[in-house]
Design brief:
The structure is a homodimer. By secondary structure, chain A is of the alpha/beta class. The first copy, chain A, is built from 16 helices and nine strands. A seven-stranded parallel beta sheet of chain A has the order 1-4-5-6-7-8-9. Chain A has a two-stranded antiparallel sheet with strand order 2-3. At the A-B interface, helix 10 and helix 12 of A face helix 10 and helix 12 of B.
């Protein structure tokens, strides 16, 4: 008799579960004292580039708070240096040297071989899998092409994404060339993470929400779909492959198209009613989300009420509980624990599948 | 025989129009060389506080580009000093000294008398009305309570609005006290602008889009509605009053509630299909919007196609053409002209009302 697949993976595939699984974006992060202790001794980039450190902080929230999935400690911008763009992480947000704003600069960007250029990430994946020893699955991740384009073009975060808009509207051919390079980079990197042991992958489209619906289709969804197509066509996915999660921050305007990416799971940000999302995207995909990270500032009994509300709206089948955005550094870990416990208790099925 | 009301005001009231009117958020702004010429000689605050300068730049886009409404040159933060919070406008965005983060600090904030404290704005309104000489109507404006709260609490713009979330979730009583003070300030200021001659008013809820639907209702919509109720109950509105426009930046998640504010016109940001907004909010309100400001980087013939698309989605009745966010400083005024001309030509009704 084989043991059933882990809870999180079954929920991603809309299979029966005995309760709703939970993990949390940025769960390996600054709200945890044990994370800050590591961070005090190392820079952010050192932590990303040292597999032992990445492994250590990835496991902290699993050991301490009981999440149902681990997510690799890394950063979506980690691929940019391998493409030819230097990145630094000062306190006020990441900074990319020499942002690319014309076709000539875009043509100089490489599509990296992840084994050669990002081997430390793959080694971290291997070490984490070993350290987890099967307790919970490990999620790998990368930035979606459009979101990576905003960083490469703006040189960091932005208020109104002027340079990105100038590129996509002023030179769409160059924009699509950049998106193509970013899509191939993303697909190759995710495939390598799976080959190294990642049991699911999430593609973060953190800034796709700055587009009109028609531009979302043309510049964000089209290229996220390309990544997913490349993954599904790869030898790694030959026998079905691991679940693919596509997260669009600010997805509410795009619900008519959101389910067409080919992802197994759609990430839902906290601004929207996840029940309304389910009604619009249909039953072909799982949903992940979507409590406001800010709601973790509520007293624990009100956190419990918010959890109950999300669970009721999301429904029983094909739901992975998560925040609708990364947890904030000022969050009290005791409040996170209250959320985790509430999800586990309130979602327990009377008609539970035997484990 | 009396002449009909101006086109813009009729569209706000869903009355018959011979074509769709157009104005543009930040139309008196840095994309215009004539604005930059004034700005080179004066600080931003000097321009806000000197009626002659505010009047000069308010009229520039009317004279040069042919918009169907003028909007007062000012800033939503202009009320904060009158409440007791100092504001400066460095290049990288506004900064509020001593942001309020607890109830004690909130209780020290005044609800200003606009005539005594903001007389220079009211004088600008009077001068602009005189200078416009009836050519087009003048729109006054203020920041909506929730958006003003984010500035008062964060001390400026923010990436994740941590302090705002800590206040609304950690001390909702203090948050509502602050919102009440901001609502009374907003209503009093808008009423005074109308008394001075403003022919419509817009309330900007630029950051209401950082809330879940339930928190949008509780912390943003509830207090915007309060402002509108205060206005409608005021002597100034006794005989119907001027149209009230409520703009929520990022409105897509809130369409189920958006029409319930009591506003005559709902501002629609560029992320959402304005036709989908119409379908959800019904026919009781006018809509204003919603081309992506970034689309002004397109070649003029493609700008024309975007204009046609917005006009078709928005429909013929109760539509004021606008961008879905402020125009960007890097925009070519010739492209703005192409948009204005396209709106005027493409929306001209075969069954036009005689003017």
């Amino acid at each position: 008799m084989t043991s059933p697949e882990p809870l999180f993976l079954r929920a991603c595939r809309r299979q029966p579960v005995e309760r709703t699984p939970i993990w949390m974006m940025r769960q390996a992060g600054r709200y945890l004292p044990s994370y800050r202790a590591v961070r005090e001794r190392h820079t952010f980039l050192e932590m990303c580039r040292t597999p032992e450190l990445a492994c250590e902080v990835t496991l902290q929230p699993i050991d301490q708070l009981g999440f149902d999935a681990a997510i690799l400690f890394s950063d979506i911008l980690i691929t940019l240096p391998a493409m030819g763009l230097e990145v630094t992480f000062p306190e006020k947000g990441p900074k990319i040297e020499g942002p690319v704003r014309d076709h000539a600069a875009i043509k100089r960007l490489a599509v990296p071989d992840p084994t050669a250029e990002l081997g430390y990430v793959l080694e971290a994946v291997r070490q984490i899998r070993g350290a987890l020893a099967g307790r919970v699955p490990l999620i790998g991740f990368a930035g979606a092409p459009f979101t990576m384009m905003t960083y490469a073009v703006e040189g960091g975060g932005s208020k109104d994404y002027t340079h990105t808009k100038q590129l996509i509207f002023g030179d769409p051919e160059a924009a699509h060339d950049l998106l193509d390079r970013l899509a191939r980079t993303c697909a190759g990197f995710l495939e390598a993470q799976v080959a190294a042991g990642a049991q699911a992958v999430q593609m973060f489209d953190s800034w796709a929400g700055i587009l009109s619906p028609q531009d979302f289709r043309e510049f964000a969804l089209r290229w996220a779909t390309r990544v997913i197509d490349l993954l599904r066509a790869s030898p790694t996915w030959r026998d079905g492959g691991v679940p693919i999660i596509y997260f669009v921050n600010g997805c509410a305007p795009y619900l008519a198209d959101y389910a067409s990416s080919g992802a197994d799971v759609l990430g839902v940000d906290y601004r929207v009613d996840i029940g309304a999302v389910r009604a619009r995207v249909g039953d072909g995909v799982a949903l992940q989300g979507n409590m406001d990270p800010g709601a973790l500032f509520l007293p624990p009994e009100q956190i419990r009420a918010r959890v109950a509300d999300v669970l009721a709206r999301a429904g029983r089948v094909g739901h992975v509980f998560n925040l609708g955005h990364g947890v904030m550094p000022q969050t009290d870990p005791a409040h996170v624990r209250a959320m985790v416990e509430a999800v586990k208790e309130l979602s327990a099925r009377p008609d539970a599948v035997a484990t």
